[in-house]
Fold each of these.
Amino acid sequence: MARTENEQFAKRVVHYCLNQADRQKSLTVQHFQQEGIARSTIYTILQRFEATKSLAYKKIPGKPATQATPKVLNAISKMFEKNPSLSVRAAARRLNIAKSTLSDIKIKKLGIKARVKQKAPKYIKQQKERAKTACRKIYKSGLRKILVLDDETYVPIDPADIPKREFFHCSDPSKVSYDDKVKQRAKFAKKYLVWLAISENGQISDPFITDQNITSQVYLTECIKRRLIPFIQGIGKNDVLFWPDLATVHYGKIVTSFLNTENISFVHKNENAPNVPQARGIERFWALCKEEYSKRKTPPKNLNGFKSLQNNCAKSGREVRKSCYGQCMEETSRNRLP
């Protein structure tokens, strides 16, 4: 128990002994043992009262608090309760106390810890309403079908150019070389474009990798005809719902006409959900692939070497990524979509 709780309990014990138990220690002990209090604790309280004739506890030794007063503690607590995003520096400036002092009070006295905010899409205009309605339709349309998503991403050729947090460890920074203290990055790093399709069951199509921009014709020839159609046929054409993102090349006339000719069920542009990376598991898959690729120390020598590495990274990412359809269902059921 806390100190204040101990003091209140001691008063209860003594009051019961003097007024209700007729100063009989045994009756007092029996009464408070029913509350789960140890026998030795009750006898200690009674013996201390007999010796001192007082219930007052000794004052806590040391200098009294000048900064962490109850008034300041209450002000800090209310400040972060009203605005959880307030920085420690700004809060310290408002209360006119040191930043380090407020940080100690916040953590040690109040148990308030800083936590990292999760990234979420920022919706503009009518995107929020459109996304929620479209995701519901996609979810219902895919209940009896296998969801297949496709997407493309840019991957830096040099693994060191992939954004990530890096640290260096030392006891004396002055003894660490400059190269170990900094992360060097090229201003305009060369990148490859990687496209692939992924199903809710973990199946992954052959990737298309190029160092050129992708057009509707390239997308149709290299991605749809050569890779997506064989991939869907392997699953079962009538059992698939194809969900492309809203990139312009994905909805070119030659692309949509070909999909209709092949009787491929796909999400039409006016029914697609804008800006919902949290519902598209392929976004998480890309992150895992890039994380795996960033572990390399040297870049590949050419495009063929990069393709080989990306195939290996895709296999590693497949083992730990979430099901695309399962993630969409989870987000929708928890109302985490916009």
Note: The mean pLDDT is 85.
Amino acid sequence: MQRKKRSRVTLQQVAEHAGVSRATASLIVRDSPNISEKTRKKVLESMRELGYVYDRVAANLRSQRSSTVGIIITDIANTFFSELLIGVHHALEKEGYTVLLGTTFDSDSKQDRLLSTMLEHRVGGVILCPVSATSKETIDRIKKLDIPIVLAVRELAEANCDYVGVNYKDGAELAVNHLILKGHRRIAFLGGRSESSTWKERFEGYGLALHKAGIEIDASLLVDSAPTRDGGMEAVQQVLSQPNPPTAAFCFSDLVAFGVMLGLRDVGLTPGQDMAVVGFDNVPEADVVNPPLTSVSSFARQIGSNAANLLHQRILDFEREHQRIILNPELIERDSSFVFRKK
């Protein structure tokens, strides 16, 4: 009679026997120094009791796959993403990863091509800053291939994966409250694509601040556009053509705000004097433009480092629970927002 072959003991079984997570057990078999000696001894004892044998060939194959990861952003010209990339690189390089970068310019077709290319090169994981029109099917396609993915900056409903972002609603409310306290009541919301989750969350905060102050939303002061300098210029030109133009603008991003300032100057108006301008992101240039831009800080580097750390954890333990990290925004007041005095 042929003896039944004994099934191989898995690392998950070792982890359960030792009462630790699979990620912790994985770190121990790879001799990580970041584990306490007490935990290490407990896990090693479980390995001996269960007869666990580390499959180094399989581990090497996994390591080869995960040594390169991809990050896809929407616009390299936006300094927010440059700062985010610094955070990603600093965190991943410490773990020995090589990073492949792709830029979509908010194009769904470009995003699909970049994802296909990265998957063909068998990246070990992807950090994705999704384009405005990203569908849940795009994420499902990656997850079906067992590729770890972390979303950053823009969240997708029902995507069911790790995410790092900012409380955009609270940030927008901070910005608009600031303008209301300065005496402004006609406050435009300029820039960004209205179909994106980040625009919707900012709009929610914008509307909430107005509602609390007893100010009705005026649809003519809502102008969505490309989240770029050109988009900001076009948006401000549109609201300035109205019979009763706004005295202040809350902008989707600092990049849009820079465009708004250029648009104001094009028609002979001075930003920070003829119209108050508030941005979102607090990129480094916000402090050096003229006038310096009041902005909501969204901590781009921290988003990047958190996203990188989540991806690393997901690569180590694909089955771990999903995490959602939301950073709290902070308003940085500068000279572009002024006290409104009725003329």
Note: The two ends are 100 Å apart (CA to CA).
Amino acid sequence: MRLVRLNTPAPQSLRGATVAIGNFDGVHRGHRVLIGMARDHARARGAPSGVLTFEPHPREYFAPKAPPFRLTNFRARVVGLCETGIDMMAVSRFDEAVARMSATDFIEDVLCRRLGVGHIVVGYDFAFGHKRAGNVALLRHAAVERGFGVSVVEPVHEGQEVISSTRIRDALWQGEPRRAAELLGHWWEVHGRVRRGDQRGRTIGFPTANISLGGYLEPQFGVYAVQIGWPENGRVVWRDGVANLGRRPTFEKSDVLLEVHVFDYSGDLYGKRAEVRFIDFLRPERKFDGLEALKAQIAADAAQAREVLRNLPVLEAGD
């Protein structure tokens, strides 16, 4: 997959592509249906396939002081989109110029001049342009005039529930990572670099790999059964673990930190880029009366996490 920044027009070899448009936060099952339709349509036309997305997320632009909400950072989104088999990820910087661009100018400048689309695929509720004035009807009308095609994808359901990034965020805020995974089609992951902490875990027999959430959404604070992966010899090695996410009230800490105890591992992970999959919520975070009480509870949490992970189902995202 080729990453294309739309500060200049796309390369000639990628013009005429069938392009799915969206933010694709989480690259969830609904996104994959949209992207799969674009990919298959492109193959039938003998044309390139791609997505058009925005960075930063428009929500970050309009509400920069709001709490973090991302399901995926940019790196993880690139990885997820690459797995869909498309040829191009076109990224438009979302700044004041784009925010103030009219719907008609968006079609003319971004879709036609910069991308040179042959066909686009959008969701049923797609809105674009200044104050979201553009809609599917306007897009269809412009497509006839400009000579490109439009396909509209209806909502994708899990049971009676529409799959959306908002519903996935709600599940994580409620401490339901398995429900989030059902909607995503894969386990929710946090990607980050392991940093050096206060090393208190080593003193009680439970050393941890510490990762800052950065711009990721903060799910319900507490203890989780997790899997953690890091690169070794050109591939990602995965191990089971138990993690605490929160502010560590026993030690009166205030910053939010993800602390992962990796089962049966004694190596050094400092500085490595790691991926942490949230598998199951075990209990809320709470304050303990001293290190012995904390140590006993971590041992119980670790035993529970091992049992959860021993019977872990396999998730397949599919299309």
Note: Residues 2-154 form a domain with the Rossmann fold fold (CATH 3.40.50.620).
